[in-house]
Structure formats: C-alpha cells, structure tokens
Request: fold
Amino acid sequence: MAFEMTPLAYAYDALEPHIITRAMEVHHGLHHKAYLAKFNAALEKHPEVAAGKTAEDILKDLNAIPEDIRTAVRNNGGGFVNHNLYFSIMAPGAGGNPTGAIAGKIDEAFGSFEAFKEQFNAAGAGQFGSGWVWLVVNPQGALEIMTTANQDSPVSQGYKTVMVNDVWEHAYYLTYENRRPDYLKAWWNVVNWDAVNARFA
Reply:
C-alpha cells in the first residue's frame, strides 16, 4: 500500500509573516509531494519492504533495504519522514517558551531554553549545504542536538526524533533569501509545543 500525504493542520498562509504563503506552497505542495511520489515509486519495486511498517520503521534499518532501491528510499523516504515531522510541529499563533514535559527536559539538558535555542540555531546555521537540525533522544535516553545532511534521518542511527527545523534553501529562500540565521530565529514563532510534547511522549 502506498504512503499518502498527511493533510496540513493549517492553511498555507497561516504561518505568515514568519514563513510566507508562497514558500509553503512550494515547500509542502511541490517538494514534499515529490519526495512522497519518488518514495512510493521505489517501494513499488519491492512491496515487501513496506509491509506492515510505517515510513519511519523503514528508515530504521537501511541495510535491510534491497540495494537497488536503498538510495532512493534513503533520500526520498527520508525527505517524506523529515518533512512530515517538520510540518506537524508548526502552527499559527504558536511559539513562545516550551510547555509541558519537554520544557523541564530542555532545562535539564541545556541549562535553559535560551541556551538551547542558541545552540540549536548555531547548529542549524553551521550545517553546510542542505540538511536538518534536530532535537533527538539519543540511545542513552538523553536529549541532544544534531544535524544531518541532505534527507538523512537520525532514526537510521538509532535516535528518536523530537523536533526538527529544515535548513534546505527551499525551506527559507523565498521568505529570507540567503539569510538562514534570520529564518532560524523567526522559526521559533511557529513552533507548536503541544505537538512537540506529543512527539516526545
């Protein structure tokens, strides 16, 4: 069975002015849709790979993927899974300080929310080329900031993903041109902490 797009919980214009409408149209309506189509096309060659699994489950063991589709699954399955998380933890009228269980865990791991934000933004700004900046739970059970290149996912390395920001140019260029740090700073205004807590739980 083919994977499907998860409908957005908000309109394309809902994240204005932090992420403009046209950026969302291109990012969700074109890029995300294309990753999904190519992921499904790869899986059609080996339907057994997806049998009874979520897309995230498939990425957990890339070595188990048949070699002829492994790169396509890594790139396009990663793109599909990464974007699903990214779009699901944003919302209009969101942002502000963390709430719920994740707030205390962030303070425990990083000292304060401000310190966490500073480290997260620095990691995102420092990711060379295309990629992602993540808050993950590492195999030892602790929170950690990490980056991945291209569409690689931390789940392929044994991490649990909690939240993510997309630092591919297509995520921010229409809104911020080449000013990635401005995008990273503004993005906190749309982080939906309820969704992050649900993911963390």
Observations:
- The chain has a mean pLDDT of 97.
- The chain is about 50% helix and 10% strand.
- Helices lie at 21-44, 55-59, 67-88, 100-110, 113-126, 169-176, 180-187, 193-200.
- The longest strand covers residues 131-137.
